[in-house]
Task: structure prediction
Amino acid sequence: MAKGARRGGRVRDKWRDKQWLILDSPSSFGDFGGHHINYLPITDANTAVGRVVENTLYDIKKQDQSDHKTKVFVEIEKIGEGVATTIFKGHEYGKEFLRSLVRRGSSMITHIHNYNTNDGHEFRVEVVTFSQRRINSSKKHELRRVIHELLSEKIPQWDLNNFIQQVTDDNSEFHRELLEKGRKIASLRHIGIKKSKLLSSNKSRFQRVDTQTEDERVDTQTEVSQTEVSQTEVSQTEVSQTEVSQTEVSQTEVSQTEDERVDTQTGQEGIETAPVDTEQNTDST
Result:
C-alpha cells in the first residue's frame, strides 16, 4: 500500500458538525456596540464561552481606514440563539504599524502600569513613545513620570465606555494632551497607548449555556446522592473489617502469651524434678 493511502473506512468531516456563531461588538463601545462584527465556527456553545477573538477597530466602527492598525480583543460572555454577546478584553497596535514607527537614531520609551476605572475595571496600560533623536536617561525618566501622572489623574475619572473611547482613538482629547505635555520635555515623533489588557472586573466574567433539563438535573442529583451513600457504606465496611482484624490480632497475641506461660511453668517443673531422680539413683546403688 502506498504511503499515506487510506486504510479503509470513511473519514468524518468535522466541519459538518460545526455551527456558525455571530459575534456582536461590546456594548461598552456606545453607538458602535451591539452590531455584528464577526462569525466564528464552533462545535459546542459551552466551550465557546470565554473564548477571546481578535478583530480590528475598523470592524467595529467602519469609519476610518487607519483603524486597521489597531487590534481589538473581545471575549465571549453569553450565547443565545446563535448570537454571542462580548466584552472588551483589550487592544494592541498591529506589528506592521509598530515596525513603521521604528527609526535609526531615535529612542523608544515605554511605560507599563495598572490603573482602575471608576466602575471597578482594572487595566494594564502600556504607553510607547518615539523621539526624533536619541535622548538621555533623565529625559526618559521625566517622560515616564509625566505619563504616569496623567494616567493616574484621568483613568480613575473614566468609566469603561470613556476608557475605550480615549484609549483606542489616537485622535482623542487624551492623546492630544499627552502629546502636548511630552513635547515640552523632548522632541517626540509619536506617543500613544500601545496596548491595554483587562485584568479584573467587578462583574461576572461570562455565563455558560445551561443545556440540562429539570429531569436531567434530578437524575444527576440522585446519582450523586447514591454515589455518596455507596461510598459511606464502603468506608463503614472497611472500618468494621479493620476492627475485626485488630481483634483477631489481639486474641492471637493473648493466646501466644498464655502458651509462653505454660511452657515456662513446664520448664520450671522439669528443673525441680531433676534432683529427685538423682537421689533415687544414688539410693539404689
Summary: Residues 80 and 209 are 8 Å apart (CA to CA).
